[in-house]
Write a structure and sequence with these properties.
- The structure holds 2 protein chains of 2 kinds.
- Chain A is built from 21 helices and 15 strands.
- By secondary structure, chain A is of the alpha+beta class.
- In chain A, a hairpin with a 2-residue loop joins strand 13 (506-514) and strand 14.
- In chain B, helix 2 (54-64) runs antiparallel to helix 6 and helix 3 (75-84) packs across helix 6.
- Chain B is an alpha/beta fold.
- Chain B has 2 domains: 13-62, no CATH class; 65-183, 3-Layer(aba) Sandwich (Rossmann fold), CATH 3.40.50.
- Chain B is built from 6 helices and 4 strands, in the order H-H-E-H-E-H-E-H-E-H.
- Classes of the chains: A alpha+beta, B alpha/beta.
- The A-B interface holds A 140-142, 149, 154-165, 198-201, 205-206, 226-231, 234-235, 246-247, 249-250, 253-254, 297, 301, 312-313, 316-317, 319-320, 323, 333-335, 570-571 and B 71-75, 77-79, 81-82, 85-87, 100, 112-113, 115-122, 125, 141, 147-155, 170-171, 173.
Chain lengths: 575, 195
């Protein structure tokens, strides 16, 4: 047992004392402490660990539900809240069993605004009713959908057509009732409704915002998501662990390798596999190159939305160069599927290191050129400074992680605060902003590009030799030399291909610092070759839920600038 | 000698096949002699008049100024960004002026997964485009649902709108998109203009 878990258990004693009969058991999930409570005590438990000075878990990382119908006989569902303190870096999972006949728990929205969308998703996918939730309606599936698709007894192939998109009037009327003062000075018919998206140049694919305008001022903004909900989690349940990797590519498709790494790291934690040093270094190098690519897309598209098209051409040229390098290693430009459970698909090419070094030299001039065009540009400053600002406390409460959180002023980065893969061996800085506005978010990303270059340079210097796959027979595909060289290798290959890998029964929640923030994977194994459940904690999901807060009161054009700077990637948002 | 009626040729034409070049510069086969033999002058009508068919002129114009509407939903949309940016440069084929208003576009490029939730939007936007219009299904998701064979993904956009060209790949390489545009242009020059 690690020290961190022991420490947490000491505190769980105070929680047990506080809840009395409401506390059921202390459990662990990998390295995380878990408090199992009765569902009647769930809300009080969450309030306690949020406000108790010993815990102060001020961020709700994720909400999800486990449908345990094939795992146990009593209560069918578990509702899970993943909590986090970003300063002390302590985490806690709170879970409560919920029976199928009466699937109700009390909402956590008054504690964390981030719970709003998280609980809506749990309702949509599993049918858990959160009492007191302000807006408990479907979020990923469409309004005519019948049933709850992530329940284990829902047939994966049972598609359901939608006749017409939601007009969102129910949410608009609710917002009117909540904020009557915004309409007080306006006469009937003086406002205008405008649909931004889902097919809109600035909606980045599939985001939809219904905005109500007074002149050009946004009175209300109502985001609707789920237009790219393509069933990642359900598909993962019907595929073997290694077969899920291509699906992870398509979560945040701007930086596919980061997702590959996050997923593989979680499954390896579940299986207890430790990967060789060289593999970890290569994962770092390619994940950091992916981070650069992700930030390039985000910033260049954001600048296009602001009318600065030239930067897009400049930055995309650089992106093409990184594509070429990554393609030389992985064989694909965008969707790389490079990792495997326990290692990598293949080692780097022989000439990778010199090519990578040459590429890194080109990054700085591109960033510099772009900044020269925008950093002191009057129009750019007017459009971004002070636009869509958010305070650190609000950002934490809304579940912000990654560049958007750092822009608000908190220097939190899992690579520094909770290092994995030798990030503690590299010398790099965490950029942060002052106001949490659009300007800060853009500038933090540009600075992170530079810091990623530093990390890759150091990783190339330190790159050790050795294998890129762990030596775990029956779990990790052996080298071809082994497969064709001896009988054990061949049997091993046969077993991995035909029977897949079978992690022991158990659960894990594991995280990495993806370009958008904390990318978490909650994976449940029932001992078979397929994940029983695979839930992603998508960083931009919670960021986007705060969009009305950022955009309301500003101009409609500012809303576009804000949206771009949040880097909402639909594949990750809707999964 | 009459200009070749390309409609009679079998199968879709590829770009580079005769057509626009013959219209723009009066090559020998396109020139029609209006004066009796032996009396040609350098300032005759032959240098000023080109005879062709209305269909050909209209098609030539259409195919060289395609205005695509990128209905980008997912990963393929990122590759489409690559297609229109400097390195691959779709403007070399006259189709770089992306329009996000369906009223102004005549080539819809569906780049990415279309879900049941998105399907009514796609249908409406397609209906809003003016005729003549073409649709490219970019990537396997738009073509067939790809490996998202599940409860929320439309199993190919051809379930709700007609598709002129399917591009394989997940996502397709930018060259494959360029090939699709060029192939489609070839096919456009061989159809009746439907004025």
């Amino acid at each position: 047992m690690s020290q961190a878990v022991q420490h947490a258990w000491a505190d769980l004693a105070s929680l047990r004392q506080h809840l009395g009969a409401g506390f059921v058991a202390e459990e662990t999930m990998g390295s995380l402490p878990v408090a199992r409570v009765r569902r009647e005590a769930l809300r009080e438990c969450l309030r306690f660990v949020k406000e108790d000075p010993a815990w102060r878990l001020h961020q709700l990382s994720d909400v999800t539900v486990l449908d345990a119908m094939q795992l146990r006989d009593n209560e069918r569902f578990d509702v899970l809240y993943f909590l986090h303190n970003l300063v002390t870096n302590r985490r806690l999972v709170v879970r409560a069993a919920v029976p199928e006949e009466d699937p109700k728990v009390e909402t956590a929205v008054p504690l964390w605004p981030a719970a709003n969308w998280g609980e809506r998703e749990a309702y949509d996918q599993y049918g858990i009713v959160f009492r007191g939730h302000p807006n408990l309606k479907r979020i990923l599936n469409h309004r005519e959908f019948v049933g709850h698709p992530l329940r284990r007894d829902y047939d994966i192939y049972k598609g359901q057509w939608l006749s017409e998109a939601d007009d969102l009037t129910d949410e608009l009327e609710r917002r009117h009732r909540e904020n009557p003062e915004r309409l007080a000075d306006l006469e009937e018919g003086e406002t205008m409704l405008l649909n931004l998206g889902p097919s809109h140049p600035a909606s980045h694919g599939t985001l939809r915002n219904l905005v109500e305008l007074a002149g050009e001022t946004v009175l209300f903004a109502i985001p609707e998501i789920g237009y790219l909900h393509r069933g990642f989690e359900k598909s993962a349940e019907t595929h073997e662990y290694n077969q899920v990797i291509p699906y992870t590519d398509r979560l945040n498709y701007c930086s596919a390798i980061s997702n590959n790494v996050g997923y593989a790291k979680a499954v390896e934690a579940l299986c207890g596999i430790s990967v060789p040093e060289r593999c970890q270094y290569i994962r770092v190098i390619l994940a950091e190159l992916s981070r650069i690519m992700d930030h390039l897309v985000c910033n260049s598209a954001n600048l296009v939305d602001l009318g600065a098209l030239t930067n897009y051409w400049y930055l995309f040229n650089l992106r093409e160069k990184i594509y070429n390098l990554i393609e030389s290693v992985t064989g694909a430009r965008l969707t790389n599927s490079y990792t495997r459970i326990g290692g990598l698909w293949s080692d780097l090419t022989e000439d990778f290191v010199p090519h990578c070094r040459a590429l890194l030299k080109e990054v700085e001039p591109h960033v510099k050129d772009t900044l020269k065009l925008v950093a002191r540009n009057r129009i750019f400053l007017d459009r971004t400074v002070g636009v869509g600002a958010i305070s650190v406390d609000d950002a934490i409460a809304w579940g912000y992680t990654g560049p958007c959180l750092r822009a608000a002023g908190l220097e939190h980065d899992l690579r520094k605060n909770d290092p994995y893969y030798f990030y503690d061996r590299f010398n790099f800085d965490i950029p942060s902003g002052h106001q949490g506005d659009t300007y800060d978010r853009i500038m933090v990303r540009f600075e992170e590009i530079r810091q990623s270059v530093r990390i890759v340079e150091q990783a190339l210097d330190q790159l050790p030799g050795g294998p890129v796959k762990a030596d775990y027979p029956l779990s990790v595909m052996p080298d071809k030399t082994q497969t064709y060289g001896n009988i054990e290798g061949m049997v091993n290959h046969f077993k991995v291909v035909m029977h897949g890998i079978t992690p022991p029964r158990g659960e894990v929640y594991d995280w990495t610092e993806a370009p958008n923030g904390e990318l978490g994977f909650y994976i449940v194994s029932d001992g078979t070759m397929r994940p029983y459940k695979c839930k992603v904690r998508p960083p931009c999901f919670y960021v986007y839920s705060s969009f009305p807060k950022l955009a309301e009161g500003g101009m409609v054009a500012d809303g576009i600038a804000i949206l771009g700077s949040l880097n909402i990637v639909a594949g990750e948002l809707d999964r | 000698m009459a200009v070749k009626d390309s409609r009679s040729s079998s199968g879709p034409q590829t770009a580079g096949s005769p057509g626009p070049s013959r219209l723009a510069h009066s090559g020998p086969s396109a020139r029609v002699s209006l004066t009796p033999a032996g009396q040609e002058t350098s300032t005759g009508l032959t240098d000023a008049v080109i005879l062709t068919k209305l269909d050909e002129v209209v098609n030539w114009g259409r195919k060289n100024s395609l205005w695509p509407l990128p209905f980008g939903t997912a990963c393929c949309a990122i590759e489409f960004m690559g297609v229109i940016s400097s390195v691959f440069d779709l403007s070399r084929f006259g189709a770089e002026l992306v329009r996000f208003s369906p009223r102004q576009a005549d080539l819809m490029i569906v780049a990415g997964t279309v879900t049941y939730k998105q399907a009514p939007i796609l249908k409406r936007i397609y209906d809003q485009m003016c005729d003549p219009k073409w649709v490219i299904a970019m990537g396997v998701c738009a073509s067939s649902g790809g490996f998202y064979d599940n409860y929320c993904t439309l199993q190919g956009i051809d379930k709700i709108i007609p598709v002129d060209y399917y591009i394989a790949g997940c996502p397709p390489r930018p060259e494959a998109v360029l090939q699709a545009v060029v192939d489609l242009q070839g096919r456009m020059s061989s159809r009746k203009a439907d004025l």
